[in-house]
TrEMBL record:
Protein name per Swiss-Prot or TrEMBL: LysR family transcriptional regulator
Organismal lineage: Bacteria, Pseudomonadati, Bacteroidota, Bacteroidia, Bacteroidales
A Pfam family that the UniProt record links to this protein: HTH_1
InterPro entries associated with the record: LysR_HTH_N (IPR000847), LysR_subst-bd (IPR005119), WH-like_DNA-bd_sf (IPR036388), WH_DNA-bd_sf (IPR036390)
Keyword Transcription part of the UniProt annotation: yes
Domain of life of the organism encoding this protein: Bacteria
Keyword set, alphabetical order: DNA-binding, Transcription, Transcription regulation
Family: Belongs to the LysR transcriptional regulatory family.
Xref: Gene3D superfamilies: 3.40.190.290, Winged helix-like DNA-binding domain superfamily/Winged helix DNA-binding domain
Length: 309
């Protein structure tokens, strides 16, 4: 129902590329250019500065971007609400999820959700927690799911699942053989951790800070950009990694990794929904309620028993 020209402008403005907007909307590039020219003629302004192969927003373009974000969001809410009058769930949901949640928690949830709500067009962006929050502030997504411990004042957070980050090593590669070590022993062991900006590293640093310990005082050998990268590395190294319990359930059952507890230290956190303050989207609320129902019906374990505790 919404003016397609606004969708075209929004896609070009967010990507700062006519080509990328064309690919995103499955519309030819000449058609994209035509829609932009129509908007510029309608308002008697230039929306983009063109410098060679690059474009940037003019002042008028920035104003239109601000309004188009709100208008398109309202159209999505309207579309959802009107279909609800017929008990029909349809519309669009743009999710952004941190890497751990996207890879290890969401797959079965999304499979069941799309089965129950086949008319809702769902897209998922997988990135680290800070990028999810940024995408939400830029209106690139409708709802975020993050694992960070920091809170931005203009966003709303709602916890939906508890998680524990556990120190693990490879059994085959002769990783740490003890089931529990002292904190001083922990400080000497070579560590493989997630990258700066990830919710996992934020949570680790927050727990350490409570103990008055800086990350720089530990023996951190490497930062990797994904949990899968850490797991793959550990399979070929005796180093210790710290990852979500949800990421290693299978490896624990198969006796690939063992957990080594650290005396007096546990890395616990919560997975949270994150949304814009005061901007509740009907499709997003429907998804939030679905996730809570799913987690209640399917008992999601924390630590599980494998070859070790």
């Amino acid at each position: 129902m919404s003016d397609f020209r606004l969708k075209v402008f929004y896609a070009v403005a967010k990507n700062l590329s006519f080509t990328k907007a064309s690919q995103e909307l499955f519309v030819s590039q000449p058609a994209i250019t035509k829609h932009i020219h129509e908007l510029e003629s309608l308002y008697q302004v230039r929306l983009f500065n063109r410098l060679g192969n690059k474009i940037s927003l003019t002042e008028a373009g920035r104003v239109l971007l601000e309004y188009s974000e709100r208008i398109l969001a309202e159209y999505r809410r309207l579309d959802y609400s009107m279909h609800l009058l017929h008990n029909e769930y349809s519309g669009q949901l743009r999710l952004g999820a941190s890497t751990t949640i996207a890879q290890y928690v969401l797959p079965p949830i999304l499979a069941e959700y799309t089965r129950q709500y086949p008319k809702i067009k769902l897209t998922l962006i997988e990135t680290n927690s800070r990028n999810v929050e940024q995408a939400l502030q830029e209106h690139s997504i409708d709802l975020g799911m993050v694992e960070g411990v920091f809170r931005l004042p203009n966003l709303r957070y709602e916890a939906f699942l508890c998680d524990e980050l556990v120190p693990v090593s490879s059994i085959q590669e002769g990783g740490e053989p003890e089931e529990e070590i002292s904190f001083e022993e922990f400080r000497q062991i070579p560590l493989i951790l997630r990258e700066r900006g990830s919710g996992t590293l934020d949570a680790i640093e927050a727990v350490l800070a409570e103990k008055g310990v800086k990350l720089s005082s530990l023996n951190v050998r490497m930062h990797l950009g994904s949990t899968e990268g850490i797991k793959s590395f550990l399979k070929h190294s005796p180093c210790l990694g710290i990852v979500s319990i949800f990421a290693i359930r299978r490896e624990l059952e198969e006796n690939v990794f063992r957990i080594t507890d650290i005396a007096g230290l546990r890395f616990q956190r919560q997975f949270c929904f994150v949304s814009q303050q005061g901007q509740e989207d009907g499709t997003a609320l429907n998804f939030i309620h679905f996730v809570f129902r799913y987690l209640q019906e399917h008992r999601i374990p924390g630590r599980i028993k494998g070859g070790t505790k």
